[in-house]
Fold:
Amino acid sequence: MNKSTIQLILEAIEKGEMRAGDALIKLKDLPFTDIGHTKIDNHRSLRSGHPEVIYGEHKTARQVVDIFQAMLTKQSNILVTRVSEQLAVMITEICPSVIHNPIAHTLFYEHDRLPETTSSIVIVTAGTADLPVAEEARVTARALGNKVTLIADVGVAGIHRLFACLDVIRDARVVIVIAGMEGALASVIAGLVEIPVIAVPTSVGYGASFGGLSALLAMLTSCANGVTVVNIDNGFGAAFAASQINHLELEKKS
Amino acid sequence: MNKSTIQLILEAIEKGEMRAGDALIKLKDLPFTDIGHTKIDNHRSLRSGHPEVIYGEHKTARQVVDIFQAMLTKQSNILVTRVSEQLAVMITEICPSVIHNPIAHTLFYEHDRLPETTSSIVIVTAGTADLPVAEEARVTARALGNKVTLIADVGVAGIHRLFACLDVIRDARVVIVIAGMEGALASVIAGLVEIPVIAVPTSVGYGASFGGLSALLAMLTSCANGVTVVNIDNGFGAAFAASQINHLELEKKS
Amino acid sequence: MNKSTIQLILEAIEKGEMRAGDALIKLKDLPFTDIGHTKIDNHRSLRSGHPEVIYGEHKTARQVVDIFQAMLTKQSNILVTRVSEQLAVMITEICPSVIHNPIAHTLFYEHDRLPETTSSIVIVTAGTADLPVAEEARVTARALGNKVTLIADVGVAGIHRLFACLDVIRDARVVIVIAGMEGALASVIAGLVEIPVIAVPTSVGYGASFGGLSALLAMLTSCANGVTVVNIDNGFGAAFAASQINHLELEKKS
Amino acid sequence: MNKSTIQLILEAIEKGEMRAGDALIKLKDLPFTDIGHTKIDNHRSLRSGHPEVIYGEHKTARQVVDIFQAMLTKQSNILVTRVSEQLAVMITEICPSVIHNPIAHTLFYEHDRLPETTSSIVIVTAGTADLPVAEEARVTARALGNKVTLIADVGVAGIHRLFACLDVIRDARVVIVIAGMEGALASVIAGLVEIPVIAVPTSVGYGASFGGLSALLAMLTSCANGVTVVNIDNGFGAAFAASQINHLELEKKS
Amino acid sequence: MNKSTIQLILEAIEKGEMRAGDALIKLKDLPFTDIGHTKIDNHRSLRSGHPEVIYGEHKTARQVVDIFQAMLTKQSNILVTRVSEQLAVMITEICPSVIHNPIAHTLFYEHDRLPETTSSIVIVTAGTADLPVAEEARVTARALGNKVTLIADVGVAGIHRLFACLDVIRDARVVIVIAGMEGALASVIAGLVEIPVIAVPTSVGYGASFGGLSALLAMLTSCANGVTVVNIDNGFGAAFAASQINHLELEKKS
Amino acid sequence: MNKSTIQLILEAIEKGEMRAGDALIKLKDLPFTDIGHTKIDNHRSLRSGHPEVIYGEHKTARQVVDIFQAMLTKQSNILVTRVSEQLAVMITEICPSVIHNPIAHTLFYEHDRLPETTSSIVIVTAGTADLPVAEEARVTARALGNKVTLIADVGVAGIHRLFACLDVIRDARVVIVIAGMEGALASVIAGLVEIPVIAVPTSVGYGASFGGLSALLAMLTSCANGVTVVNIDNGFGAAFAASQINHLELEKKS
Amino acid sequence: MNKSTIQLILEAIEKGEMRAGDALIKLKDLPFTDIGHTKIDNHRSLRSGHPEVIYGEHKTARQVVDIFQAMLTKQSNILVTRVSEQLAVMITEICPSVIHNPIAHTLFYEHDRLPETTSSIVIVTAGTADLPVAEEARVTARALGNKVTLIADVGVAGIHRLFACLDVIRDARVVIVIAGMEGALASVIAGLVEIPVIAVPTSVGYGASFGGLSALLAMLTSCANGVTVVNIDNGFGAAFAASQINHLELEKKS
Amino acid sequence: MNKSTIQLILEAIEKGEMRAGDALIKLKDLPFTDIGHTKIDNHRSLRSGHPEVIYGEHKTARQVVDIFQAMLTKQSNILVTRVSEQLAVMITEICPSVIHNPIAHTLFYEHDRLPETTSSIVIVTAGTADLPVAEEARVTARALGNKVTLIADVGVAGIHRLFACLDVIRDARVVIVIAGMEGALASVIAGLVEIPVIAVPTSVGYGASFGGLSALLAMLTSCANGVTVVNIDNGFGAAFAASQINHLELEKKS
Structure:
């Protein structure tokens, strides 16, 4: 099965095979697994290979392990983000084939390999210090089946480094621009390309950066067209949205 | 005695048995116990079973222990919130029958069991990570004599999980909605039920959550009617207000 | 019909007369009137006398008039809040029996008189300048069928004025406390009564009031128990929540 | 000519027909028209029908008129946003065939009609008051050659209104969600669809809305995946990004 | 010598014994001891008993010790505030007669006992958790030669505790009110007394307290007259200003 | 009668002539005049000459006139602050002997002249633009019976202007320092004098002044001892607190 | 006389011709003209041609006229900034030879022409809407005797426009970069040149620009070296600092 | 070679020896070393002695070591800022001749000694606690070849300490003023000297300092002319800008 349950239901309505009201009943009956502290939402991941995702922060290690184990039984791919060292150890013990990326702070369990897109997502960072966010984005985009290229450290202070990579960027279907401090790189790239730009402000900086606020506000008020923004340090969210865009064509074709 | 001293005084005024001025004198003479660093306000807890409450944060462990011991001599129920591990150990040594809830960060000493209300408070969380706040609310509401149901992890990203619990929520007399990040769950529930909704923003989130500010502002500006809001992470306060509402009918009847 | 459609549907589920899934279909089929720029949600106001509400700000006068006229055809009571002088004139021309309260900035069209509750809501303001918000709350609470008392100008700078009104406040089922500047009145009243306190910060003040932020933060961080808070200047919202609480007993009785 | 100059140049590099360095020289020599106070960037609009865009705010009416007239000579389509009443009059005198949308505050001069996409952009608003932003988005998306549908007033306070439109939304290639106050609609829709969601916070609201800050933070911290965000009230920017996404397939096909 | 050098100089001008210009030369030549990282300003402490003050935070322990030792040679009284445990140990080794107050985080070396004022400063706290700030104020006021009374834990949630202490407060010459959270106590006391009220917001609280901001804004916007405010947690500053006021009469008499 | 009722009551307690409890009854029975929208607090102004004060902003002109007229019947002095031009005209018509200060935005009706203090308050401004706040302070201090001197435009950018006035400042009993922008003058003066400094930040400035926030924060974090702060633009409040300090000695003597 | 009084005094100290103390006396005796509401600081403008400067905002038109007239008598050049239309008319009537720049909101009276520097200041703006700030900077820099070039509308959204002007910028001694919104232009230019960059954030923008805050924070956190920042919209301040830098060499040579 | 590559290229254009377009190609071909996580920008440091700079924060120690080693092979001087103790040890092991300044948190490897300027930069701090920022500035300015003088602890609370150093300050070509808390020192110094003032706000302070925000806003809104500001605690940036100014004359002469 290559489509999500929800999509199949809605297509059934469209074709007149089902009434919209019945669809809502089905929505209510969509599978989720209640393990007490968490209600695992299964219906999105039923497509083979599409990963379940666990946001690892703000939960106890015990809770994450419970969720992970419940998911393992479904034979899905599983991506865990914002993983502490301790949690990585605990889950690796349970499931030795999980891949731990200590810079991205992710764990990835790949039960089935998802086919890779032909078009690609390019991830660009302004500095070396933005790499943890970029790695989170890269791991996520890969786990969602995208071809990904990562270009690090081409911030505007030495803009010739960006020019040297411009051909690679324009060849992508969507670009993720990751920058802290004044976040100017998003505007500069959006002025040079005509593909969608998803900007990720990072908390890299100090003083008037106010934990990423400076980059966030700068990206939101970009004078260049076509920039949309996600939360500070949200590499996962940028990759998820980029993957939706990158998959649009393929799905339409099917 | 089932009523608070202050209530009896004020009723006496109402019945013409006492002049308002005399009531104020009595207010001034209301019992409190001065233990140097703290003036314990006893008059609210004189009703059998109604707990004394100690807010455990920002005080030294020594001070909390002093207050706890002074209260023990009054044979009240005692609820301590925001309890550190160290404090939990210190008080359990003094009073082994105290119940420690490590997720809620509470201690509860139940000298007399309070009768439980027939109507209930439902506590709903958007995510697993909101559970510490929800548990603080649950323990508090129970300690104040309420029937309580806790529903975890029904945030709007998978709204069908909420629909599956809607019957339980609408059966309550008041609902506490606990959510971090964008706090949208409060608006959605308030649009679906006609009972009072007390919203608790949590500090769950990162970046533009700014320690719970995003959820707080969202809940305050809810487009749905009937939402009132308490401080970020204030599970105790939400439960206290909910308990006041849940007890209104019973007290009127007596 | 005295109950809302949604309530009847949900009760049918409870009694086993309808499946929850069918209820969701009906939710989807709930009546709303689409007039292009607005989708008027009729299902809440079908109970005789319960007013339709139009929030008058940020809409063009033309849009509000359209909505008002569409509602008039349903023979509901209609409450319009945040009404400009110009809008008041336009609607009064269409519907001369509408009542304009220029301090509350409200219009009220009362097609059927709602029965008044026996228990009351008390509205208290810290200063004279808080009266527009208090009047919005009073008009709303009255339109929702509540007995209401308004006590103005008893702020903490002259606390004896509050003591002189304490008996009236404690006799209510719920109290709305409206204050700008430092908003201390909410904490003081919540420390003296045992009924729910709904606090409304106002934008009255200057400088470090920052448009009501000082009162808002103060009310959210109140050291007194039982305080819940609504948005700055939201007299309507406070009255709506208070009315829900004030009607709880009556509905349970039925 | 159907492609932008910049695209042609870069494709030439890709094909080995031009060295990257030569491309940069050409970038430098890209056409712009210097009219003193403004350097009009022509190279993006050389494709027939693609509009020139003038941001009308913060410029004097005189400056906007100068820019408009300079663009007229190029026989491009011209879109002016954030247009005051006075400016609309001035430009209509110069160019009577310009179309003024007083709700969107836009002017549009269509020299050549751009072919419309087969896939569509859906624009959804939470309330009536969000319509000016939605209209700006609609006019922009249309001017950029997109098929557009606008659904107004389906905010979460009456969520059944949203369910009634869900089929239309899921049929689009990308959805723009426009909401003020607590901005919850973006999260709810993103939880129900699998297409990219571009969220536009609006300044609709008061008090703790802080000019759109509440909706902005809520949208940035959305618990639903796939949401990206633009500046407060930036209907233009959302439509521009949506158009880029909506055109991806078509361009790849060519 | 009982007067400061600067005062003597300025009195000389007043009496015509010195030209203002000459005073400025002397100002420039006022004694300070340069120990490299610090220029110790001696001229204020030349009066017997008036303490030198070292702000202990943000300096290295080594720097504080250097300054302390340089001051010891002048035989002044010395007050060190914001002292870490480590620093307390280091200085006690050098100067065993120093008095360490671990709640106030102060060290005091009293070379000469300052005569105590007949009129007194009263320090009042809203809660037990405000005691560290209150103790810093008490130690400072004592070190500056004032009679001081400290009343703890009389916050507005149990206002009868305040009434029981009102006589003591009104007997003082100046009152320092210390409160976190909503900081309402300052307004309530200022409404009940006619002496100057110096308000100290504390960082006690959580969530919307924003590190003391809620109390700070509340105190600045107090509706009661006669309240002035110092920085969050600035017990030292409040005591210093209170001491200036408390000494006014005595100095005029001399 | 030269003392306030509240003071007499409290002195009676002190002398053992009255029990504290009886005092509280009397507090409750303190005179206030209820004119519907306002409860005029008379007990402070019973001393001959001490003015009633009306804060004129945020009230309707009609309300202020009502309050003014009610006060006139008591033969008190009356000070109205934050007076609009329109209000000034309305009240002058009612009471032609009222004095309007259009820079201070005050009205003053002097029924009895208050005796002037021998010691003085000095008011210092950093710039010409701070004069409205300074005039409000001057008029208030005068109305409260103080000798006052006003020194304008001695900001730190030309510090020699300050030195030329230093003798006058140091001769005062208390100094009010009024400054916008960076508010540095308060720190500089507090470093040069040994009398209490009350700092008033003003909203003079633009950009990063954020309506007076820059000066407010600067004054709160002053490195000089003895500075206390009032709200932005609160000339009245500074003068009230300064007058309390300036009268301390006189009252003690009586 | 070509040097300021203060400079001559200080040089005399350096040469041993005067004691530092005497210099301070002289500082105190530096000329200023007291016209009541303002103390005009003359000593900086005694050099022929160096203008007196009046900041025109927040003062009454009457006050500005008074100051202007007092300065006219000194035969100085006079620059007035932040001039309203009404003020421009009033001063032009008094002094018809004054030059009014309605975009810069300046008035300039040039009694003596200052010699122009050989090296130049370049002023660059990101957009047309930044021109009022740029013009204020240009007029100021000219009035201070600098050669100035203004390049408008080269923001990063069309970066090839910047490259076309790069030669002019690098030829200057100092560059002022003026940008609103995300303020990225400052970082990009600082990465391309090796001269000092003074960045001026402007209030151009909306929504998350928060009145220039986004550009301000971005410029302060620039990843490019050599950027210093002035207040939002402070064209005058940037020009003043740039002029100091531009004159350094010349003065050293003399 | 004494000039940067970029400068030589641009001068070639100026002299007509190269076309601007060719310069841009060369810009693109400027040397940088790609070591995976970082693209080291070499072209600025090719001048003998000019240091490479590594910002040490937010990178892993491993990444910094990699960059350092790659730079060592170029035989440049290398300055590392924001160095942790652990990193200092790691790099010292690799390169024992590196100089570690533990107060400045810098490492400096001096391969070639840069000639020192004849004119000097003076660095002034308000307090002892500002020394880490001042030391970072001093080390940076020295590494860039400047004569530097550091004056510590002359804050405005004891302004006579400043007067005693005024001669040294005025003798410099540019002054860096470093202050936390209210940051008043920048305004006071800028009012006394006529050289450029670069102000560095520091995070020294507590409460309303908000991590340096108070000093930052104060410096940005300085009433004194000629002040420009860098980020909070950015001693490096201030020194870099100061060095640019200090070298202007020398380079012009060559």
Remarks:
- Confidence is low (pLDDT under 50) at residues 250-254 of chain F.
- Chains F and A do not touch (no CB pair under 8 Å).
